[in-house]
Amino acid sequence: MKFKIKTDSRKVKKGDTFVALRTIDSDGHKYINDAIKAGADQIISNEGIYSVSTIVVDDTREYLNNYLKTTYQEIFEKMKIIVVTGTNGKTTMAYLMYQALNLLGRKAAYLGTLGFFKKSGKKYKLDNTTPDICEVYEAMVDAYNDDYEFFILEASSQGLAQHRLDTIKYDYAVFTNLTHDHLDFHRTMENYAEAKRKVFEELKETGKAFLNFDDEYCKYFSLEKNQNFTFGKTGGDYQIKEYNFSYEGTEFNVENEGKIY
Length: 261
Hints:
By secondary structure, the chain is of the alpha/beta class. The protein is built from eight helices and 15 strands.
């Protein structure tokens, strides 16, 4: 399986298709000629005919989303996608899961603040916690081609609001917490929470949501259609009873259905 579609002209390679997206702060149509110079042999745009094959559509984002859904559906059927969202703790939780799964002999890749990692380590850095949708898909295709079982992804509120994770379906979604941050972008806590909620609206039918019981927004992300599980120190399906931090490591007891682990 190959990935040959881009929305960033700086990342276009010979033979790629370039989709010109219009966003809040950018218009991809301004960079079509740059994409052609970089080797794009097809352009998807709202207007104009160019020196290479051109498809003019009413909505380039709708075209892109339909293309990604139909072309790469196989990924979501054969790989388990884990997404972590919240204000604090996304990177720690996602990266620890990546490490733990690989130590258990389960092939897992990670994409987030630290970069793109496969079992052997870091492949490259990213410009954003949640990169452009095509970068996300390209990394997933890379992992899929190498028979990875899990793909762990950090989801930032800005990335969700800017459609960088549109079309992606998740097997597991984790909510860490929601605190007063990024309000320069979202303006209100309601907008901030609504952006995060998109993650839990995109769970597969068999998907599971894991929610921080201690956070006041826990119920907001506990959607009726999902299988919801909670964790926390004050309560939850998985309740932390005792914990100890030291240089040697972290030890804790967790209670689930009356049993201590």
